[in-house]
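Q: I have 106 residues here and want to know how they pack in 3D. Can you give me a structure?
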Amino acid sequence: MTPCLPAARFSRTAAIACCLLLPACASQAPAPAVPPAAPVPAFGAATRAVLAQQIADPDAASRTRNPAAAGMDGRAAGQAQGRYQKSFTEPPAQQSSFTIGVSGGK
């Protein structure tokens, strides 16, 4: 067993003393009760204002006379929606590793 140097013994003793005395710094008094804050009457007003500013003309759809701006017909919209849903369910076709960069038929 090697003898402890005086500096090492002092630092070890100081560390132990700090660990033992550190809990004495903690407050034992309960935290003061803080009353709940009253709600701000204009809470969220800035968010609502920015959202309203994003819409340039809320009545634009009711005043349009261009039939192309009205949207798709029902059948075309249904087919487009079906293709969109199908793209998530079917995995893409696996290509052969020998056809890298070569365009060929199926």
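Q: Anything worth noting?
A: The CA atoms of residues 97 and 105 lie 15 Å apart. The first helix runs from residue 6 to 21.
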